[in-house]
Design brief:
By secondary structure, this protein is an alpha/beta fold. Helices cover 37% and strands 20% of the residues. The chain folds into two domains: 7-257 and 459-478, Aldehyde Dehydrogenase, Chain A, domain 1 (3-Layer(aba) Sandwich); 262-448, Aldehyde Dehydrogenase, Chain A, domain 2, CATH 3.40.309. The radius of gyration is 23 Å and the shape is globular. The N and C termini lie far apart (77 Å).
């Protein structure tokens, strides 16, 4: 197969204190082209010494050169990062598509969103100001916002650069320093970002980028006593491990731990909008989205006609290599595609579309057919467990109240969506569902500006928007008697 990118052009070495660290003889982890199963390149693993050096570098920068950069200049640096990401967007999107397997159009959108994060938080970096507190004529009392310290960012494999930017940009805007560990499956755009940060004038040590497996490099980073805050996106089980590690030295955490989010379609909805929204919610990035609408809860009176159209649309989806921009790209790894297949096989659900491994012509990678399952049991693994693949589980509701009950009945609470012309029902649903985000008549509504995070097993803390800054600064109160 023709090589579509020269991966030798990417510096794979860890980025510490503003320079690349040569790791001759170090262990390496291969990153794969998920569509073909072939190795793209081998990335050196950052050992304990590198982790310690990265944190030490961030700690020095926090009280050193970075502390002397005025907020207005931090703002200009972040804006330059955004501009440089956009300048290199075509290259970054190609790398992201090949490394993650996602369709090229989605990778292009991710690169623009990454730039937007830096742009958005550039606009607030010089506006983080405190309050005065009226205690009477004998006192002056005011608050200051101070950077929380060295921050660790554990990045997932499904949205590599976007998730890096989502946490890193507000951390820098607040004056923090950072150590970033991208997922071992998709580290490449984070490594390229190191060069962009340098070109934008970010001082050495402010951002350090290290690579390796979560249970080694990531664990060392999370348990490091000089890390003040950990931002983590990943599974519930790993999130609990990260919280325990952070708790050992009383570091704060932001936890985004996935979901099993419902898309509710009521009988009065615009069915074309609901169909298109459901397809996007369930199958974007081959369903490998924490906030995916992976459960369709639909009123019985409109279910048959809707599901016939849904199954036909899903059955017509193309599978292929992400760089060729198919409808559905590969699943990230052999391990993940096996997990998807296992859950479908164990679900006991009726298969309306798909339901088996995909085999695009000429490709030997990790594909699973886009699948629609009609659940027979609300306690089914297909209803209750996050599958993280191109699988949509359908539940039939008798009426609106039943739909609300089904939508709430999982241990997750990240997102919920509803399609209806009845504003009262939409708002009642918004109040009823335990979730961090509710979408009405458009799934994935909002953007960089809208707070994002979960409840229940989906985690806690908020990213995006102005809420996303709060994890990265501490409020200090100063009170003086006159």
């Amino acid at each position: 197969m023709t090589q579509l990118f020269d991966f030798d052009s990417i510096n794979l070495s860890p980025f510490v204190d503003g320079k690349r660290i040569s790791l001759s003889g170090a262990d390496v982890i291969p990153t794969y082209d998920a569509a073909s199963g072939s190795v793209l390149c081998n990335v050196p693993v950052s050992d304990e010494n590198i982790v310690n050096d990265a944190v030490a570098s961030a700690k020095r920068a926090l009280k050193g050169p970075w502390a002397k950069v005025i907020p207005a200049e931090r703002s200009r640096m972040l804006m330059r990062v955004a501009q440089l990401i956009r300048k290199d967007a075509a290259r970054l999107a190609t790398i992201e598509s090949l490394d993650s397997g996602k369709p090229l159009r989605e990778a292009k959108g991710d690169i623009e969103t990454s730039a937007r994060y830096f742009e958005y938080y550039a606009g607030i970096a010089d506006k983080l100001q405190g309050d005065t507190i009226p205690l009477g004529p004998d006192f002056v009392s005011f608050t200051m916002h101070e950077p929380i310290g060295v921050t660790a960012h554990i990045i997932p494999w499904n949205f590599p650069l976007v998730t890096t930017a989502r946490g890193l940009a507000p951390a820098l805007a607040a004056g923090c320093t950072a150590v970033v560990k991208p997922a071992e499956q998709t580290p490449l755009t984070a490594l390229v970002l190191a060069d962009i940060l340098t070109e934008a004038g970010v001082p050495p040590g402010v951002v350090n980028i290290i690579c390796g497996p979560g249970n080694k490099t990531g664990a060392l980073l999370c348990e490091h006593p000089d890390v003040a805050h950990v931002t983590f996106t990943g599974s519930v089980a790993t999130g609990k491990t990260v919280m325990r590690a952070a708790a050992s030295h009383v570091a704060s955490v932001t936890m985004e731990l996935g979901g099993k989010s419902p898309v509710v379609v009521l009988a009065d909805a615009n069915m074309d909008d609901a169909l298109n929204g459901t397809l996007k919610a369930a199958f974007m990035n081959a369903g490998q989205v924490c906030s995916a609408g992976s459960r369709l809860v639909i009123e019985k009176s409109c279910a048959d006609a809707f599901l016939d159209k849904l199954a036909a649309r899903v059955g017509a989806f193309t599978l292929g290599r992400g760089i060729d921009d198919p409808d559905i790209g590969p699943v990230i790894s052999e391990q993940q595609v096996r997990k998807v297949a296992s859950i479908v096989a164990e679900s006991g659900a009726q298969t309306l579309a798909g339901g088996k491994l995909g085999k695009p012509s000429g490709l030997n990678g990790w594909f699973y057919e886009p699948t629609v399952l009609l659940a027979k049991d609300a306690r089914s693994v297909a209803v209750q467990e996050e599958i993280f693949g191109p699988v949509l589980t359908v539940q039939i509701a008798d009426d609106f109240d039943h739909a609300c009950a089904l939508a709430e009945d999982t241990p997750y609470g990240l997102v919920g969506g509803i399609y209806t012309r009845d504003v009262s029902k939409a708002l009642k649903f918004s109040r009823h569902l335990s979730a961090g985000q509710i979408f009405i008549n458009q799934y994935f509504a909002g953007g960089v500006e809208t707070p994002f995070g979960g409840t229940k097993n989906s985690g806690f803390g908020r990213e995006k928007g102005l809420e996303g800054l709060k994890a990265y600064y501490a409020v200090k109160t100063v009170t003086a008697r006159l």
